[in-house]
């Protein structure tokens, strides 16, 4: 892509606060964006070949939305965690194995998509985020869900298509968790904490494609209580 094309995009972005440059084969984060650190609210560089997100990302202090889906990122810089206004972060289909230690400082974050990466566990840093609504960790290599998950504030947690065989009973203590997606994992019925059914806020539990038949779930103690929540939620949205 020529300089003149980039320049045109930068000029538009200066007026709109949105910089979108997707599917252009970019191999690096455009350094010229530095000129717009105080303008930009949205950056979308999805479907490129970017391998490194540079530390300068920390300078975009008004950024609300950042999308880098379908790139080649293997790590994220600590500087990303300075973005106090960031509300949505989409990093699907990269090669990320972990999140920066200070990730819990992204205090405004509401939506986090990390589908199709190489995470092996539910990152503990997410538990510090008070405004999280939706967390998508589907299509990773997560094998177990640790005790810290009980502090997660999310409303929806998507763990579909992982390798999960163990879930901490603490997941039923999540204060706001309404939707839990666990489809296509390696769960035995005995490994599903019954308290998810009997004693949680969860009103939609998706567990198709595990190592048990769905009808067996209906025989578990607490299933009636779960169905009450499920039905009440359905009525609310009907």
From TrEMBL:
Record's keyword annotation contains Protein transport: no
Keywords: Leucine-rich repeat, Repeat
Signal peptide range in chain numbering: none
SMART domains: LRR_BAC (SM00364), LRR_TYP (SM00369)
InterPro entries: Leu-rich_rpt, Leu-rich_rpt_typical-subtyp, LRR_dom_sf, LRR_domain-containing
CC terms in the record's Gene Ontology section: cytoplasm
Superkingdom classification of source: Eukaryota
PANTHER family named among the record's database cross-references: LEUCINE-RICH REPEAT-CONTAINING PROTEIN 57, PTHR48051
Full protein name: Leucine-rich repeat-containing protein 57
Species of the source: Nothocercus nigrocapillus
